[in-house]
Design goal:
alpha/beta, 3-stranded parallel β-sheet, 6 helices
């Protein structure tokens, strides 16, 4: 579903409209997609990773690597390879990568996976803060209880079909 919303895949049937565009790839510049795989380089520091990814947006106003790291609660001066980070720190660095071009729509695939409870709660608090900054967030997760405090709507899919749609209960 997230890859379809991001314009990376076409739906097998039906249509998807994102930001009024019937072809989601036309709205790609307004979308930040964090896949389940971190898409980061373990041998580089967080700053080095983000400098590289920022270079992929020439001529576009982006956050600096330091700003993106601060937004996700990481120390921009931490000077060790990403391969030495905890899973929670890696996930937050991955989120910082997505935030560089300041997207309006965040698509997050399993942002709480492989995290300890404390790191997952920190991620929930970060996402709650991004909601308040007028961003839309779509999260796929098998950990419904983690997303529930920030969800406006909870959509449950089963075998690719909508099994339920319920109002969320944002408390953060």
């Amino acid at each position: 579903m997230l890859r379809i919303l991001a314009g990376l895949l076409r739906p097998s049937f039906g249509t998807v409209t994102v930001f009024g565009k019937s072809e989601p790839h036309e709205a790609r510049a307004r979308i930040g997609y964090m896949s389940h795989a971190p898409m980061l380089y373990d041998e580089l520091t967080a700053q080095e990773n983000l400098r590289y990814f920022r270079s992929l947006y020439p001529g576009r106003a982006c956050l600096s690597p330091s700003e993106a790291l601060l937004q996700v609660g990481l120390d921009p001066e931490l000077n060790r390879p990403l391969g030495q980070y905890s899973q929670g720190m890696r996930q937050r660095t991955s989120l910082a990568r997505v935030l560089l071009p300041v997207p309006e729509l965040l698509l997050l695939d399993e942002p709480f996976s492989n995290m300890d409870v404390e790191s997952a709660h920190q991620m929930v608090e970060l996402l709650a803060g991004f909601r308040q900054s007028n961003r839309t967030i779509v999260i796929t997760t098998h950990q419904r209880e983690m997303a529930a405090p920030i969800a406006d709507w909870v959509l449950t899919l089963h075998a690719g079909r909508v099994a339920s749609l319920e109002p969320g209960s944002p408390t953060l």
